[in-house]
Amino acid sequence: MNRTKVDAPAPLRGSLDRDAGLVRVMGPVSLAASMISIVVGSGIFLVPTELSRSMGSLAPLAMLACAIVVGAVGVCMAECGSRVPSSGGVYAFVEAGFGPCAGYVAGTLFWIANVLACGAVASALGEAVAATLPSAFRAAAHAAVAVGTVAAVCAINIASTGRGIRLVNLSTLAKLIPLIVFVGVGIFAIHGENFTRPTSMSAGDIGRTLLLTMFALQGFEVSLCAGGEIRDPNRTIPRAILLALSAVTALYIAVQVIAQGILGPSLGSSAVPLADAMGRISPALRLLMLVGAAVSMFGWLTSDILGSPRILFAFARDGLLPRALGRLNERGHAPYIAIICYGAIAVALALSGSFAQLAVPASLLLSAIYFAACASAWQLARRGIARAGEPLRFRWLSAAVVIGAGSMVIMIALASRVEILGLLILTGLSLLVYLIQTRVLYRQQPAA
Fold it and tell me: CA gyration radius for the chain?
């Protein structure tokens, strides 16, 4: 009597059955809006200060360099998404390319990075609102805003994916209006003498600048977690990524140039750089920038909660988490239990930590995820895997893989030893959990 060997606890891997019951309603504009919304978060309202402090008027060059790196990763993501358009995003890509064990580890790092970032932004939004109130009410306001915002966005996404998409589109428009005003008005207030180079630049300064810029540009991959709900994915995904990253890069460089041109050397010491720059023109515009920062954080949450819970959903459909997380509600066809659990974890993190405490490890984890996505693009193309018709087949994919993966190795190397050790420990624990699950299912297999 022999047992049938089980090499993975995922009976549905290698197919798109995990997406059964989902409705493909997301087109290129909606997908691009989701990506723009999640990339244009609080970073663009804060990062210009650090960039100016480190590199002065050369900061736009750092922005452009990081945009090229993220663009290379975006090409790899587009190639993967056109070949394996499934719920879970990077988890599905890595699983298809390197097998269920690698997929599980990548998926675990991915959803942990996302929920850390979600908790960080929810906490930052609570802090922004609480800062306008008397000190006696700030703690309660922080908790109420963080919990209430996440709960409201979760409820809308549970109602239906379509409503979640409409919320993302609305919030994206709302967060872009202040930035468009900033560029449209600020371009006429630039003074050429404010573009000065820093007196010195150390390797540490440059490294810090690149890490900060990378953080500001990260996040577009979260939208691909809803791959099972993207219409005509082999065309929609590449178009959306190209549109989103091009728009964000142009916007970020314009904001940095204008902020430097208005504030000059004082940009490096500004706590609210965009608001201070507009304050030189009008107090009303300064208020618009402060409100815009809060709206931007809310928009980030709408996009993240639309995409990230789908990782838990995909895990559950593949037997790697309790099956309940893979359930869909009857009316909205949304993974409601996965959304509730993801939101609850994000709220707990928001109440227990600050933005900086949660954002730094999230950024490091995402660098590892980007490396895995680049490697998966090469592997999927090499093996000719295509599950949704004709894939992208990007002509210079090998160059994109080398640029993207190599840059992510550098980003990880720039982290502290403690942060790198934490990444290694989390990776090891994920692998251990997978092996234990595999062993348990192996023992439960009926005799042949």
Answer: 22
Specify whether the CB–CB gap between 261 and 267 falls below 8 A: no
Cβ atoms 292, 45 nearer than 8 A: yes
Tokens, residue 447: 């005799």
What are the residues whose beta carbons fall under 8 Å from the beta carbon of 428, sequence distance 6 or more? none
**If 0-12 CB within 10 Å is exposed, 13-18 middle and 19+ buried, where does residue 349 land?**
buried
Partners of residue 26 on adjacent β-strands: 230
- Cross-strand pairs, 230: 26
> Locate tokens 């190795």: which residue?
409
Residues 353-369: pLDDT tens digits? 776 677 778 878 888 99
> Across residues 379-403, what is the average pLDDT?
88
Using alpha carbons, select from 149, 129, 150, 153 the residue that is nearest to residue 139: 129
Q: How far apart are CA 60 and CA 162, in angstroms?
A: 37
Task: Compute the Cα dihedral for 224, 102, 361, 347 and give only its sign.
Answer: positive
User: pLDDT over 70 for what percent of the chain?
Assistant: 88
Quick check: pTM over 0.90? no
Q: Report the CATH fold assignment for 24-436.
A: Amino acid/polyamine transporter I (1.20.1740)
Q: What is the pLDDT of residues 77-134, one digit of tens each?
A: 889 888 887 777 788 889 999 998 999 999 899 899 889 888 988 988 888 788 778 8
Q: Name the pLDDT band for 295 (thresholds 50, 70, 90).
A: confident
pLDDT in tens, 184-222: 999 999 998 888 777 666 666 666 677 777 777 877 887
Tell me the sheet residues that pair with 447: 3
Q: CA 75, CA 78: separation in Å to the nearest integer?
A: 5
Give me the residue spans of the domains in the chain: 24-436
The tokens describing 282, both together, are 């009008």
Residue 190 · residue 267 · CB < 8 Å: no
Longest pairwise C-alpha distance within the chain: 84
CB within 8 A of 187, min separation 6: which ones?
254, 258
DSSP 247-271: HHHHHHHHHHHHHHHHHGGGGGG-S
Report whether pLDDT(36) > 50.
yes
Length of the chain (residues) = 448
The residues that bridge with 3 in the sheet, in sequence order, are 447
CA 243 to chain CA centroid, Å, is 16
